[in-house]
């Protein structure tokens, strides 16, 4: 069994090497909360410190949980209930967090990440070993804007590309070129489009004309003033 002895929250802000522009704003600084968990192995008496991070954003443009909300839920809901909490494995710890609140995914992920790290140190296992992962490598993705170099991302070996588009100023000719470039290289495409609903039909109709989209999944997260909707476009032609 494992018992939590101490939890520390460390708010930090990372200055990005290159500002990242989305449909909502330009991000030049990334707020995070480092979570440290001091964990005791009750059988051996050994103690290890695990590290996790709460990755929610500074504002509510992405989700209803921002950094302030994450930290408040950690301080007032989660931490008071799990201090001195004993559990047998990371999975049972995750179950306990979900029992405390079905919300606050970022806050819970930061805690769970630290627990996985601590248990890995106590059992001398990597995360891959603990989750019975296969292989020696993991495909890595990257998020880019219309102005970024897709070719450079492909050359660097990224296997998943998330293309950020401001649909208010879409250059459809350039979009066509970028999509074909990605799909011709047999890469998985995730396209995030922030737009008003009035241009939804124009954009989806345009994508249907791209015959190379067979067997690819395009996720378009469509935002409006009133609601958001997730549309999955699969094998459009």
| Helix/strand class | alpha/beta
Helix content: 25-40%
Largest sheet: 4 strands, antiparallel
Number of helices: 7
Q: Percent of residues in beta strands?
A: 25-35%
User: Which spans have pLDDT < 50 for at least 5 consecutive residues?
Assistant: 188-200, 209-237
- Termini separation: 54 Å
Shape: globular
- Indicate the multimeric state: single chain
H/E order of the elements? EEEHEHHHEHEHEHEE
Write down the overall mean pLDDT.
76
Describe the strand arrangement of the main beta sheet, using strand numbers.
3-2-1-4
Radius of gyration: 21 Å
What's the count of strands? 9
Describe the structure.
The structure is a single chain. The chain has 237 residues and is of the alpha/beta class. The chain has 7 helices and 9 strands. Strands 3-2-1-4 form a 4-stranded antiparallel β-sheet. Helix 2 packs antiparallel against helix 3.
Task: Explain the layout of strands and helices.
Blueprint (H helix, E strand, L loop, with lengths): L1 E20 L4 E16 L5 E8 L12 H16 L3 E2 L2 H11 L4 H19 L3 H4 L10 E5 L4 H6 L4 E7 L5 H13 L3 E7 L5 H9 L8 E7 L4 E7 L3
Parallel strand pairs: 5-6, 6-7
Antiparallel strand pairs: 1-2, 1-4, 2-3, 8-9
């Amino acid at each position: 069994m494992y018992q939590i002895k101490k939890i520390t929250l460390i708010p930090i802000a990372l200055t990005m090497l290159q500002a990242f522009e989305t449909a909502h704003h330009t991000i030049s600084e990334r707020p995070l909360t480092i979570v440290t968990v001091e964990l005791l192995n009750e059988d051996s008496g050994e103690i290890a410190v695990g590290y996790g991070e709460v990755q929610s954003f500074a504002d509510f443009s992405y989700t209803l949980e921002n950094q302030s909300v994450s930290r408040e839920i950690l301080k007032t809901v989660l931490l008071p209930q799990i201090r001195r909490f004993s559990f047998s494995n990371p999975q049972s710890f995750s179950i306990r967090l979900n029992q405390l609140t079905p919300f606050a995914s970022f806050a819970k992920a930061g805690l769970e990440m630290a627990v996985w790290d601590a248990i890995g140190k106590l059992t001398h296992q990597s995360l891959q070993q603990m989750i019975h992962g296969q292989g020696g490598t993991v495909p890595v993705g990257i998020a880019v804007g219309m102005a970024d170099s897709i070719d450079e991302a492909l050359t660097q070996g990224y296997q998943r590309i998330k293309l950020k588009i401001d649909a208010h100023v879409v250059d459809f000719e350039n979009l066509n070129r970028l999509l074909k470039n990605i799909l011709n290289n047999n890469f998985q495409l995730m396209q995030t489009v922030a737009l008003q609903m009035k241009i939804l039909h124009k954009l989806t109709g345009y994508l249907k004309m791209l015959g190379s989209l067979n067997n690819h999944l395009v996720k378009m997260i469509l935002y409006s003033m009133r609601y958001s909707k997730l549309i999955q476009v699969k094998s459009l032609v």
